[in-house]
Protein backbone atom coordinates (compact mmCIF):
# COMPACT_ATOMS: atom_id res chain seq x y z
CA UNK A 1 0.00 0.00 0.00
CA UNK A 2 2.83 2.41 0.84
CA UNK A 3 4.20 2.17 -2.69
CA UNK A 4 0.79 2.23 -4.40
CA UNK A 5 -0.60 5.39 -2.78
CA UNK A 6 2.16 7.96 -3.59
CA UNK A 7 2.62 6.78 -7.17
CA UNK A 8 -1.12 6.47 -7.70
CA UNK A 9 -1.88 9.96 -6.43
CA UNK A 10 0.89 11.40 -8.58
CA UNK A 11 -0.51 9.69 -11.65
CA UNK A 12 -4.04 10.78 -10.83
CA UNK A 13 -3.01 14.41 -10.34
CA UNK A 14 -1.08 14.58 -13.58
CA UNK A 15 -3.28 12.54 -15.89
CA UNK A 16 -6.54 13.81 -14.43
CA UNK A 17 -6.07 17.16 -16.17
CA UNK A 18 -5.24 15.83 -19.61
CA UNK A 19 -8.19 13.52 -19.95
CA UNK A 20 -8.17 13.71 -23.74
CA UNK A 21 -4.80 11.95 -23.60
CA UNK A 22 -6.25 9.17 -21.46
CA UNK A 23 -9.37 8.90 -23.63
CA UNK A 24 -7.11 8.09 -26.59
CA UNK A 25 -5.06 5.73 -24.39
CA UNK A 26 -1.96 7.76 -25.22
CA UNK A 27 -1.11 8.03 -21.55
CA UNK A 28 -0.01 4.40 -21.70
CA UNK A 29 2.61 5.44 -24.24
CA UNK A 30 3.80 8.85 -23.00
CA UNK A 31 3.34 8.24 -19.25
CA UNK A 32 3.66 4.49 -19.01
CA UNK A 33 4.78 4.32 -15.36
CA UNK A 34 2.28 6.93 -14.17
CA UNK A 35 -0.54 5.26 -16.06
CA UNK A 36 0.30 1.89 -14.53
CA UNK A 37 0.59 3.39 -11.05
CA UNK A 38 -2.76 5.13 -11.44
CA UNK A 39 -4.39 1.86 -12.53
CA UNK A 40 -2.98 0.04 -9.47
CA UNK A 41 -4.18 2.83 -7.21
CA UNK A 42 -7.71 2.74 -8.59
CA UNK A 43 -7.82 -1.06 -8.36
CA UNK A 44 -6.57 -1.00 -4.76
CA UNK A 45 -9.17 1.62 -3.78
CA UNK A 46 -11.92 -0.36 -5.48
CA UNK A 47 -10.97 -3.59 -3.68
CA UNK A 48 -10.88 -1.89 -0.28
CA UNK A 49 -14.27 -0.26 -0.84
CA UNK A 50 -15.83 -3.51 -2.02
CA UNK A 51 -14.54 -5.37 1.05
CA UNK A 52 -16.11 -2.80 3.33
CA UNK A 53 -19.42 -2.75 1.46
CA UNK A 54 -19.71 -6.55 1.77
CA UNK A 55 -19.58 -6.18 5.56
CA UNK A 56 -22.53 -3.78 5.35
CA UNK A 57 -23.52 -2.56 8.82
CA UNK A 58 -22.14 -5.52 10.78
CA UNK A 59 -19.32 -3.50 12.35
CA UNK A 60 -19.78 -2.38 15.93
CA UNK A 61 -18.08 0.96 15.30
CA UNK A 62 -19.75 3.32 12.85
CA UNK A 63 -16.98 4.26 10.44
CA UNK A 64 -17.03 6.76 7.58
CA UNK A 65 -18.47 4.17 5.18
CA UNK A 66 -21.47 3.73 7.46
CA UNK A 67 -22.35 7.41 7.24
CA UNK A 68 -21.59 7.62 3.52
CA UNK A 69 -23.97 4.73 2.86
CA UNK A 70 -26.67 6.37 4.98
CA UNK A 71 -26.14 9.79 3.43
CA UNK A 72 -28.36 11.33 0.78
CA UNK A 73 -25.41 12.37 -1.38
CA UNK A 74 -23.21 9.32 -2.12
CA UNK A 75 -20.44 11.54 -3.57
CA UNK A 76 -19.62 13.23 -0.29
CA UNK A 77 -15.84 13.19 0.19
CA UNK A 78 -13.49 13.09 3.18
CA UNK A 79 -10.09 13.77 1.60
CA UNK A 80 -9.48 17.24 3.01
CA UNK A 81 -10.69 16.30 6.50
CA UNK A 82 -8.46 13.23 6.70
CA UNK A 83 -5.49 15.07 5.23
CA UNK A 84 -6.04 18.04 7.54
CA UNK A 85 -6.11 15.87 10.68
CA UNK A 86 -3.09 13.79 9.66
CA UNK A 87 -0.96 16.74 8.59
CA UNK A 88 -1.84 18.84 11.66
CA UNK A 89 -0.80 15.97 13.94
CA UNK A 90 2.40 15.53 11.91
CA UNK A 91 3.43 19.17 12.20
CA UNK A 92 2.50 19.39 15.89
CA UNK A 93 4.67 16.36 16.64
CA UNK A 94 7.57 18.07 14.88
CA UNK A 95 7.06 21.45 16.56
CA UNK A 96 7.43 21.38 20.34
CA UNK A 97 6.48 25.04 20.71
CA UNK A 98 3.26 24.69 18.73
CA UNK A 99 2.37 21.47 20.53
CA UNK A 100 2.94 22.98 23.97
CA UNK A 101 1.02 26.16 23.18
CA UNK A 102 -1.94 24.26 21.77
CA UNK A 103 -1.94 21.87 24.73
CA UNK A 104 -2.08 24.83 27.10
CA UNK A 105 -4.97 26.34 25.19
CA UNK A 106 -7.01 23.11 25.17
CA UNK A 107 -6.34 22.19 28.82
CA UNK A 108 -7.23 25.72 29.88
CA UNK A 109 -10.49 25.72 27.95
CA UNK A 110 -11.68 22.24 28.96
CA UNK A 111 -11.58 20.16 32.14
CA UNK A 112 -13.08 16.98 30.67
CA UNK A 113 -12.74 15.43 27.22
CA UNK A 114 -16.53 15.11 26.90
CA UNK A 115 -16.76 18.91 27.04
CA UNK A 116 -15.01 19.07 23.68
CA UNK A 117 -17.86 19.36 21.23
CA UNK A 118 -18.54 21.40 18.14
CA UNK A 119 -19.77 24.47 20.00
CA UNK A 120 -18.71 28.07 20.59
CA UNK A 121 -16.31 27.06 23.35
CA UNK A 122 -14.30 24.99 20.90
CA UNK A 123 -14.47 27.61 18.16
CA UNK A 124 -12.99 30.09 20.65
CA UNK A 125 -9.75 28.08 20.59
CA UNK A 126 -8.10 30.29 18.00
CA UNK A 127 -4.66 28.76 18.23
CA UNK A 128 -6.20 25.39 17.34
CA UNK A 129 -7.72 26.87 14.20
CA UNK A 130 -4.40 28.48 13.30
CA UNK A 131 -2.60 25.13 13.61
CA UNK A 132 -5.16 23.47 11.35
CA UNK A 133 -5.12 26.26 8.76
CA UNK A 134 -1.33 26.20 8.56
CA UNK A 135 -1.35 22.43 8.08
CA UNK A 136 -3.96 22.77 5.32
CA UNK A 137 -1.80 25.44 3.72
CA UNK A 138 1.32 23.29 3.83
CA UNK A 139 -0.37 20.07 2.68
CA UNK A 140 -3.76 20.77 1.10
CA UNK A 141 -6.05 17.80 0.54
CA UNK A 142 -6.15 18.65 -3.16
CA UNK A 143 -2.80 20.09 -4.15
CA UNK A 144 -3.18 20.22 -7.91
CA UNK A 145 -5.29 22.47 -10.10
CA UNK A 146 -9.06 22.61 -10.26
CA UNK A 147 -9.35 23.29 -14.00
CA UNK A 148 -11.90 25.59 -15.57
CA UNK A 149 -12.66 25.77 -19.28
CA UNK A 150 -12.39 29.20 -20.89
CA UNK A 151 -15.77 30.23 -22.24
CA UNK A 152 -16.56 31.74 -25.68
CA UNK A 153 -14.90 35.12 -26.08
CA UNK A 154 -11.67 34.09 -24.41
CA UNK A 155 -10.15 35.19 -21.13
CA UNK A 156 -7.38 37.61 -20.18
CA UNK A 157 -5.38 36.70 -17.06
CA UNK A 158 -2.48 38.90 -15.98
CA UNK A 159 -2.15 40.35 -19.47
CA UNK A 160 -2.15 36.99 -21.24
CA UNK A 161 -5.04 35.95 -23.49
CA UNK A 162 -6.45 32.42 -23.39
CA UNK A 163 -8.78 31.29 -26.20
CA UNK A 164 -12.12 29.56 -25.62
CA UNK A 165 -11.92 25.87 -24.91
CA UNK A 166 -8.59 26.00 -23.08
CA UNK A 167 -8.45 24.61 -19.53
CA UNK A 168 -6.85 26.96 -17.03
CA UNK A 169 -6.10 26.71 -13.33
CA UNK A 170 -3.56 27.31 -10.58
CA UNK A 171 -2.20 24.41 -8.48
CA UNK A 172 -3.34 24.94 -4.90
CA UNK A 173 -0.03 23.65 -3.56
CA UNK A 174 1.90 26.19 -5.64
CA UNK A 175 -0.41 29.01 -4.55
CA UNK A 176 -0.08 28.03 -0.89
CA UNK A 177 3.71 28.18 -1.20
CA UNK A 178 3.92 31.51 -3.00
CA UNK A 179 6.19 33.82 -0.98
CA UNK A 180 4.20 36.85 -2.12
CA UNK A 181 1.33 35.67 0.05
CA UNK A 182 3.09 33.43 2.56
CA UNK A 183 6.57 34.53 3.67
CA UNK A 184 8.71 31.55 4.74
CA UNK A 185 6.23 29.46 2.81
CA UNK A 186 7.93 26.14 3.53
CA UNK A 187 8.01 26.65 7.30
CA UNK A 188 5.13 25.58 9.53
CA UNK A 189 4.29 28.93 11.16
CA UNK A 190 0.80 28.80 12.63
CA UNK A 191 1.30 32.34 13.99
CA UNK A 192 1.04 33.70 10.45
CA UNK A 193 -2.77 33.46 10.89
CA UNK A 194 -2.77 35.37 14.19
CA UNK A 195 -2.65 39.13 14.45
CA UNK A 196 0.12 40.46 16.67
CA UNK A 197 -1.34 42.47 19.55
CA UNK A 198 -0.47 46.16 19.72
CA UNK A 199 -0.07 48.40 22.75
CA UNK A 200 0.20 52.12 23.36
CA UNK A 201 3.67 53.64 23.20
CA UNK A 202 5.00 55.75 26.02
CA UNK A 203 3.42 58.99 24.76
CA UNK A 204 0.07 57.20 24.22
CA UNK A 205 -0.27 58.74 20.77
CA UNK A 206 0.85 55.80 18.65
CA UNK A 207 0.78 52.05 18.90
CA UNK A 208 3.61 49.58 18.60
CA UNK A 209 3.63 45.79 18.20
CA UNK A 210 4.13 43.83 21.38
CA UNK A 211 7.36 41.81 21.60
CA UNK A 212 6.77 38.23 20.50
CA UNK A 213 7.29 36.85 24.02
CA UNK A 214 4.52 39.06 25.44
CA UNK A 215 1.82 38.11 22.96
CA UNK A 216 -1.36 36.58 24.42
CA UNK A 217 -1.68 32.92 23.32
CA UNK A 218 -5.44 32.87 24.02
CA UNK A 219 -6.34 35.87 21.92
CA UNK A 220 -8.44 35.98 18.76
CA UNK A 221 -7.25 34.85 15.36
CA UNK A 222 -7.93 36.28 11.93
CA UNK A 223 -10.99 34.40 10.64
CA UNK A 224 -13.45 34.49 7.81
CA UNK A 225 -16.81 35.97 8.73
CA UNK A 226 -18.62 33.46 6.54
CA UNK A 227 -16.01 30.70 6.59
CA UNK A 228 -14.61 32.04 3.34
CA UNK A 229 -11.93 34.71 2.80
CA UNK A 230 -12.99 37.85 4.71
CA UNK A 231 -11.13 38.18 8.02
CA UNK A 232 -11.77 39.47 11.52
CA UNK A 233 -9.14 41.11 13.68
CA UNK A 234 -7.66 39.13 16.53
CA UNK A 235 -4.69 38.87 18.88
CA UNK A 236 -1.53 36.86 18.84
CA UNK A 237 0.15 33.77 20.17
CA UNK A 238 3.60 33.12 21.54
CA UNK A 239 6.85 31.83 20.11
CA UNK A 240 6.74 31.21 16.36
CA UNK A 241 8.09 27.84 15.40
CA UNK A 242 9.30 26.02 12.33
CA UNK A 243 8.62 22.43 11.40
CA UNK A 244 11.41 21.26 13.67
CA UNK A 245 10.50 23.43 16.62
CA UNK A 246 13.21 26.08 16.27
CA UNK A 247 12.07 29.65 16.84
CA UNK A 248 11.59 31.67 13.66
CA UNK A 249 10.68 35.34 13.70
CA UNK A 250 7.33 36.17 12.14
CA UNK A 251 7.90 39.91 12.48
CA UNK A 252 6.55 41.76 9.48
CA UNK A 253 3.81 39.38 8.37
CA UNK A 254 1.38 39.34 11.28
CA UNK A 255 -0.38 42.60 10.52
CA UNK A 256 -4.03 42.88 9.53
CA UNK A 257 -3.03 43.59 5.93
CA UNK A 258 -0.62 40.66 5.56
CA UNK A 259 -3.02 38.20 7.18
CA UNK A 260 -5.85 39.38 4.93
CA UNK A 261 -3.53 38.91 1.94
CA UNK A 262 -2.71 35.39 3.09
CA UNK A 263 -6.44 34.65 3.53
CA UNK A 264 -7.10 35.79 -0.03
CA UNK A 265 -4.75 33.08 -1.35
CA UNK A 266 -5.81 30.36 1.08
CA UNK A 267 -8.11 27.89 -0.66
CA UNK A 268 -7.83 24.28 0.61
CA UNK A 269 -11.58 23.89 -0.02
CA UNK A 270 -11.52 25.87 -3.27
CA UNK A 271 -13.35 29.21 -3.45
CA UNK A 272 -16.42 30.77 -4.98
CA UNK A 273 -19.65 29.02 -5.98
CA UNK A 274 -17.73 25.79 -6.68
CA UNK A 275 -16.16 25.74 -3.23
CA UNK A 276 -16.70 22.76 -0.94
CA UNK A 277 -20.17 22.91 0.62
CA UNK A 278 -18.95 20.72 3.49
CA UNK A 279 -16.26 23.17 4.61
CA UNK A 280 -17.98 24.02 7.89
CA UNK A 281 -18.52 20.38 8.75
CA UNK A 282 -14.93 19.52 7.87
CA UNK A 283 -13.59 22.22 10.21
CA UNK A 284 -15.87 21.01 12.98
CA UNK A 285 -14.64 17.43 12.56
CA UNK A 286 -10.98 18.47 12.48
CA UNK A 287 -11.19 20.72 15.53
CA UNK A 288 -13.03 18.10 17.62
CA UNK A 289 -10.67 15.26 16.71
CA UNK A 290 -7.47 17.24 17.19
CA UNK A 291 -8.65 18.93 20.40
CA UNK A 292 -9.60 15.57 21.91
CA UNK A 293 -6.31 14.00 20.90
CA UNK A 294 -4.36 16.88 22.43
CA UNK A 295 -6.44 16.72 25.61
CA UNK A 296 -5.99 12.96 26.05
CA UNK A 297 -2.39 12.61 24.96
Question: How does this model look, in words?
Answer:
The chain has 297 residues and is mainly α. It has twelve helices and six strands. The protein has helices spanning 4-15, 19-23, 27-30, 32-55, 64-70, 79-93, 96-109, 120-123, 126-138, 172-176, 256-264, 279-296; strands at 148-149, 155-157, 160-162, 167-168, 198-200, 207-209. The strands form three sheets. Strands 1-4 form a two-stranded antiparallel sheet. A two-stranded antiparallel ribbon has the order 2-3. A two-stranded antiparallel sheet has the order 5-6.
Summarize the structure.
The protein is mainly alpha-helical and 297 residues long.
Summarize the SSE layout with pairings.
Elements: H1 4-15, H2 19-23, H3 27-30, H4 32-55, H5 64-70, H6 79-93, H7 96-109, H8 120-123, H9 126-138, E1 148-149, E2 155-157, E3 160-162, E4 167-168, H10 172-176, E5 198-200, E6 207-209, H11 256-264, H12 279-296
Antiparallel strand pairs: 1-4, 2-3, 5-6
Helix pairs in contact: 1-4, 6-9, 6-12
Can you tag this structure with a few keywords?
mainly alpha; two-stranded antiparallel ribbon; 5% strand
Please compute the radius of gyration using only Cα atoms: 22 Å
- Largest beta sheet: strand ordering: 1-4
Secondary-structure element order, N to C: HHHHHHHHHEEEEHEEHH
Shape: globular
Give the helix tally: 12
- Number of E-type strands: 6
| Estimated structural class | mainly alpha
Tell me roughly what share of residues is in helical segments.
40-55%
**Could you report the average pLDDT, rounded to the nearest whole number?**
77
* Largest sheet composition: 2 strands, antiparallel
Q: Terminal Cα separation, in Å? A: 28 Å
State which percent range the strand residues make up. 5-15%
Uncertain spans, ≥5 residues at pLDDT below 50? 199-241
Amino acid sequence: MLDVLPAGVQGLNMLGHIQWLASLHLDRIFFRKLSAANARYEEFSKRQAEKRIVRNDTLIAKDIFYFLRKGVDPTTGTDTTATGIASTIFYLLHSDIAHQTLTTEILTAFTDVEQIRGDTKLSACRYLRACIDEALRMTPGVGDILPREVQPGGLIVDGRTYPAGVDVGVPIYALHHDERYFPRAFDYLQERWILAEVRKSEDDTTTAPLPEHELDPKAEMMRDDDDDNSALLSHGADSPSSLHGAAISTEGFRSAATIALARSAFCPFSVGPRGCVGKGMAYKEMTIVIARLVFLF
